[in-house]
C-alpha cells in the first residue's frame, strides 16, 4: 500500500491540512499597487512600537487629561505649560502634533472657524442684474468712461508725441 508523503513544515501540504486563511481583505493586491512586497508589510506589522510612539501614547493620555481638566479651553501652549508644571518635559510642537492627531483644540479667540462649506455642485442663485465682471466693463463702471491707455510707440516715427490713445 502506497501512502502520499506529508510535509513536516506547517502550512505546507494539501489544502485540507492547512489552517484556514484569515478573514478580511487580502494584503497582496494592496501591496502590488503600492509597489511593496507582502513580506515587507508583515515585517512592519510584527515590528514592536518605536520609542517615540510609546512616549506619544503616554503624552496623549496626559494631554487629554489636562485638556479635559481645563474644560476643553486650553490650547497647545497652555497644555505644554501645564505638563511642565507637572514635571513632564515636552516641546510645544510635540503637543501641537499630538493634539492634531487627537482632534483636540483650545478655544479660539477672535474669528471663528468656518463651519459651513458650500457644496460645489449646488445650484447658484440667478444673477438678476446681469452683471459683467470683465476688466473693461469694471473700469467703465468705476470711472464713467473707457480708460485712456498709453500705447507703446515706435521711437523712430512718433518720438515724444505723448499722445494718449483710447481703446
Describe the fold and architecture:
The structure is a single chain. With 167 residues, this protein is mainly alpha-helical. It has a domain at 51-102. Helix content is 39%, strand content 2%. The protein contains 6 helices and 2 strands. It has a two-stranded antiparallel sheet with strand order 1-2. Helix 3 crosses helix 5 and helix 4 crosses helix 5.
Q: Structural class from helices and strands?
A: mainly alpha
Average pLDDT over all residues: 79
Main sheet: strands, sense, barrel: 2 strands, antiparallel
Strand fraction equals under 5%
N-to-C series of helices and strands: HHHHHHEE
Low-confidence stretches: none
Q: Outline, from the CA principal axes?
A: flat
Rg over alpha carbons: 35 Å
Strand count: 2
Can you count the helices? 6
Strand order of the largest sheet: 1-2
How helical, in percent, are the residues? 25-40%
- Assembly state (oligomeric): single chain
The span between the termini is 106 Å
Write out key terms for the chains shown.
167 residues; 2 strands; mainly alpha; two-stranded antiparallel ribbon
In a nutshell, what does this entry contain?
The protein is an all-alpha fold. 39% of the residues lie in helices and 2% in strands.
Topology overview:
Layout (H helix, E strand, L loop, with lengths): L27 H7 L3 H9 L4 H19 L6 H10 L6 H11 L32 H9 L4 E2 L15 E2 L1
Antiparallel strand pairs: 1-2
